[in-house]
Amino acid sequence: MSGFDEKIGEVIDFFESKEIDRLGKLVRFVTAKLEQELSQKGILARVSSRVKSSQSLRGKLIKWSKDAEKKRKFEGSPEVVLSGVSDLAAARIMTYTEQDREAVVGIIKSIFSTPQGYSVDFDLERKEEHIRIRNNPRNHYRATHMMVSVHENDLQGDFANLKFDKCELQITSLLAHVWNEIEHDTVYKSLSGELSEAERDAIDSLGHLTKTGDNIIQSLLHSREIRERQERLNYDIESDKFYDEFNLSQFLESHFGPKINNVPMDYYSGVSELLSVLVALGWNHPNEVSIHFSPYSLINARNETMALARFLNKNNRTRPSISACTCDLFVVAAIIKKKIELQNKFSDTHRNKREVAILSVFAEKNG
């Protein structure tokens, strides 16, 4: 066994006995913290995390031992060697949309700290901006990499011993993640030599498709947001409609005041007939009442209501009784605007219903 093999064995032993359990706690904390914040901010995303396996760590260290520059990492203790491995603990945040990547970065900066020994900006790197990727039109890798540690406010209780640990974060869209994984497993883990041109073309085509797919997902979520907003609006409108006489009377009193055209009003008399008319016309919502019963229309309705009362009196008829100081005023205002529609709506309703009787008198008087 070579000196490097022996050193690698020592590092693995130290990792398994001293590091794995604590790093497992770290990734669980990081995952829970991220999922909580993403949910609170309404960002659609999935979080996965892991602690590097001993087998994977061994493979990395073997590669180091074959690199002249990285061999120097083995000069320290196992703890020092492991401190140079940035991805012992790692988490991946996969957003539904590409545009949410920056929002996630902002969240991460607000809930974590930069680990000791890293740049103050979390060692943030947008990989697609790297010259190696930017100058290769077939490299579609898209991800933001960051290094984080537990914020000092969270270093308490069970998490007090995580102060010097670090976790690598990768933020990417779900579709970009698909390409990243397939490309990595195909190109870097290939055991059968160089890829064929057909394989490279397929990977390139998949990269373009994922970018198109990101746009489609964004459009889909936007359309869903519009639909849900309209559904909420419709629900709010429906829930605000008048189906109760008392609520309608209270609204009329608060909206129009105790007097209309300087005449005291009784909003609790004739309200049943008014509600029937409003429901028939689809005007039984506060907004509809406000729109259709303007001060001008109520002046005309008062004149017409008094004229109907005189018409009935002239013909020695006591029914229906009509008063411009009650909700009859609104019934008549609605009839003036929508006589034909109300006649159609009430065509199968018995004439002894008071609102129908008022409609009939109006039609009789006005021809």
UniProtKB/TrEMBL annotation:
UniProt source species: Thalassospira xiamenensis M-5 = DSM 17429
What Gene Ontology terms for biological process does this UniProt record contain? guanosine tetraphosphate metabolic process
Q: Which parts of the sequence belong to the RelA/SpoT domain?
A: 49-194
CDD domains, per database record: NT_Rel-Spo_like
Source organism, top-level taxon: Bacteria
Question: What InterPro entries does this protein map onto?
Answer: NT_sf (IPR043519), RelA_SpoT (IPR007685)
Question: This chain belongs to which protein, by name?
Answer: RelA/SpoT domain-containing protein
One short Pfam name that applies is: RelA_SpoT
